[in-house]
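Run log, item B.
One chain of 131 residues. Sequence copied directly from the ordering sheet:
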Amino acid sequence: MTLGIGRKTVTLHYFTSTERQQQLRTLAEALERFLAELELSGHYQEQLSAYQASFAEARRLLENGFNQEDLSSLSRNVPRLFWLHKDWLPPLEKSKNKDGGLSEPAWFQRLAPVEEQVSAAAERLRVIGEY
């Protein structure tokens, strides 16, 4: 699809099946890293099974093939652990520094970036192309 914007022409690139497979692989790899960190953290264990199911489905789709409906369904079913918004605060614990203030725990600092990678990869599967 081509759009004319002023003097510039912008073309929509629909993702190829190879690109979609790589995007799905990226999600599976991010989920695998996240599951390891989640188990290691000892926190949010009640969400573990939902992430394990998403990982299993990503692997199944990689092995058996997929269509856009499969990718969109998987994307919607990957849970979001940390809902970042203006009123959200990360978990805090008393700092081990001399000041005794509050800080993000080490487990959260390891888990949050990997969870963000999972969420970004899952959201990417809902997009069919880009300009």
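Observations after the first pass:
- The two ends are 9 Å apart (CA to CA).
- Helices lie at 17-41, 48-64, 68-77, 106-124.
Flagged for discussion on Thursday.
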